[in-house]
Amino acid sequence: MTPVILLAAEKESAEVTDWAARIGWVVGLALFVALVYWLMREGWKWRGTLQSDLPAIPTAPDEPGEARLSMSGRYHGSTTAGQWLDRIVAHGLGTRSRVELTLTDAGLDVVRPGATDFFVPVAALREARLDKGIAGKVLTEGGLLVVTWEHGGKLLDSGFRSDRAAEHNEWVETLNQMINKTETEGAR
After folding, report:
1. pTM of the entire structure?
2. Which of 54, 60, 76, 139 could be disulfide-bonded to 159 (CB atoms 3.0-4.6 Å)?
3. DSSP code for 83
């Protein structure tokens, strides 16, 4: 009879939730996530400091000439040439954005709404090719237009994706023709 008396003596059920422990875990997780984001931001800023020797990015000339090609799409970033994961963050080159590309006889004009615009003079262009990835963005084979150019004695790869991917081949052909023409004229 004693066990029945003991059972009847308990008038409350067991506590379901320990709110203090739950709040402690949520606050701890939020602090951990904030710490990780802060460390990522500091790493990004440190990378910019390491790349601060890169000179200022040129802007488009007042009269760039008639447009040979134009394209709307996305700018996926710039990397050290040949090292598709080594993103360049100095001067805003690491910021992904929408892009309006215009190719003229003077060079490649890169207009990025909400980010820093830049201009690549035709003499600085080195190569154009189709690739599948750059700086953390991987697409299907040939889904990315990669333009190699020289700036401050350093070769850079910049990745672009057109809203109409069929345009990529024409861009590669035209850019490489311009580069070969410039190199041939420079050799004379």
Report:
1. 0.73
2. 76
3. -
